[in-house]
Each structure stands twice: as C-alpha cells, then as structure tokens.
User: Fold this.
Amino acid sequence: MVKVRDKGGPLRSQETRIGNEPALPSTIASSMPVSRIREIMDLAWEDPQVIHLEVGEPDFPTPSHIVDAAHEAARAGQTRYAPNAGLPELREALADKVARRNGYEARPDQIVVTQGGIQALYLVLRALLEPGDEVLLPDPAWPNFRMIAHLLGAQVLPYPLVAQGDFLPRPEDLERLVTPRTRVILVNSPSNPLGTVLPRELAKTLLDFARSHGLWFIADEVYDELTFDETFVSVGSVAEPDDRLVSVYSFSKVYAMTGWRVGYLVAPSDLAELLTGMQEPIVSCVNTPAQLAALAAVTGPQQVVGEMRDAYKERRDELLGILDRGELTSTRPSGAFYVWTDVSKASVPSMDLARSLIESEHVAVAPGSAFGELGEGYVRLSLASSREDLLEGASRLVRFVHHLGEAHS
Ligand code: PLP
Assistant:
C-alpha cells in the first residue's frame, strides 16, 4: 500500500479512509517519481551566475515566419476548436513530410496531432497498456517514459544501453527480458540522453523481435531532423506494412518550438481512429494558432533547421575536443543535442556531483542517474547552450571531476 503524505501532516494511506474523511489524491499520483533533472534545474535557477548545460531545449528563438503564421491565424479569427485529430491541412502536410523526410508512406488518416511528443506517448501507451502490463523501456532514457508507465500502473522492463553494446539495444537482452505479459517495446532514436541512432539493420532486427512476440513497437523520433551524419533511418522506413508500429514526432526540438506544444504520431489507421477519439476527453484538440504555426514550420523554408543543426554540430565538435583533452570519455552523438560523458573518475554519485558542481563551479549538468540506474557514473551535457557557455562549462567540469577524483584517491 502506498502512503500519501499530507501537507506537513502525518502519513496517511488512501485505503484507510473511512466515512466522510476528506478524499486523498490517488496513490498513483502521490507516488509519482520526481524528475531529478528538474531538481537540478530548480537548484541551478537559484544561482544567477550558473552556466546551464542541463536544459534539454534549443537556445534559439522560434523562427520568425513561424511566429508570424500564428499571429496572422489569431488575427484572422482562427481561434476556434480544431478537429480531434488535428487540422486536415496540417495532417496532409505531415503525411508529405513523413514521405519526403522519413522515407515511408502514411495517409493523413494515420496521423494524429498531439500536444507535443509527450502527449502522443501518453496517449498511445494509455491505449495499449492495461495496469500490470509490461513495457520494454531503454535504460538510460528520457525519464518521462518511466513516469508515463507509472501513471498507467504498467511494469517497466528496463533494457540496457551500455558502452559494451555501443549504447544500442541488444536483441539478446530483449529476449531475456520479454514475458507473455509484455505488450510494448519503446525505442528512442536519435536518443536522449545518448545521441545514438538506431542502425538500419538493428531497426529491422528489433521489428522482427517485436513481431515474433506480438508486441507493439513505439519509435520515438522527436529528434529526427537533428542528425549530424547519414546514419539515421526512421523505423517506419524499414517496417513491413502490417507491423504494429507507432512513430512519434515533434516540432519542439527540430523547429525550436518547445513552448508551442505541437507533436504528432503516425499509427495504423484503426489505432489512429481510436487515439483520435481519446483526444476528446484529454485535450479535445491542440491549440489552433499553434497548429497553423506548425503548418508554416513544416511547409516553409527548411534552412532554419539546417542552421540550428550546423550550430549543434559545431558545438559538439568543440565540446568533444575539450572533454577529450580532459580525458573524459564521451559519446559522439549522431543526433539529438546531448553529449553523454563518463564522470566515474570523480568517484561520487552523479547526483552529488551535479549538486556540488553548481555550488563550487556554477555549472549545471543533468546527472546520469536521472535517466535510469545504468546512467550512474555519467552526466548529460546539452549542446543547446551558447558556444561560450558550453566551452567554459565543460572546462570547469573537467577540472572539477579531476579534483574530486584526486580527493578520493
Ligand atoms: N521524446 C524525447 C526523447 C524527448 O527528449 C522529449 C523532450 O525532451 C520528448 C519526447 C517530448 O518533447 P515534446 O513534448 O516537447 O514534443
């Protein structure tokens, strides 16, 4: 039984409520794990001098033609409810985008516009999982996957992404973990926090695995257009037509639109129809001017994306130079905008390291343990910070890790 802590009062449990005692929040809500990245962010915001390398959002403003489109839409009175699945013109434009840039065919009726990628993930997992069902999630991974599973009462089967496996899923681990109660495998490529992308052959192998166990496959590809070499392939482009695949995308990272809250998913049409119906009691529809801004983003000039991608790539190369000279082993990301750095030389837990790095060096990083048990010994550095901040912050991190390591030797 999960205990609920009353504000300042004693612990009480939901199940011991008798008579007309005030009802408490559900045990699932009350036992929701807190985000440790958020904890570090809150600490960092108390210190105005801090260099922020912990934040997972672009430091660029939303391109002006996208902002103008929302402004014009609102001025023209396009401020009413939209259809549950999204504006038809946006869904059509997204079907085109998926064909041109992700390399597979999808009809507009397979697309549901959502409130960011996170709402697409919540929606689809809500549709596919019963309480007690199991979902295969990466470890380390973006912590929100696990939080969704928690809210749904699902069991997480963490599959390892470790240096010995090039930080990619290993089929033998998945075979070891899967049970008759497993319903879903979720794969994130390009990966937050690792920056790895799923090679074509491995994507096929993982689809085979899902098929042979009757699992749904969720491909989180929200960083699909932030890739630095030619290795990224969308899972949809190597899937069979009847695969039970749902792909999730977002405007947040690719177009620097985190606050606009527009994402979308591509699903088999019968599932898309079900998900569309579920939107009604959850969000009804996504903000209409924001959908028109998204339409301008996807149909307008794409060099804005290229410019941001080039900036992240340049920052990546300079950052890796500093970490390399400082003898901190890091992943060389092929996509997304994060570098995953081994700080085990410091010989302290990554959360303690992140806290004391703020206090002593005024640098905030995301502790590896925030991303799962196997993230311990690492930190995630975000390339979405100005070049100057990134280089200065990384130099201080190197110095601090060596200093701690010497103190513990
Ligand atoms: N998936 C991954 C791997 C992410 O890192 C994020 C955001 O950090 C999301 C999905 C969802 O982003 P949004 O809801 O802003 O589209």
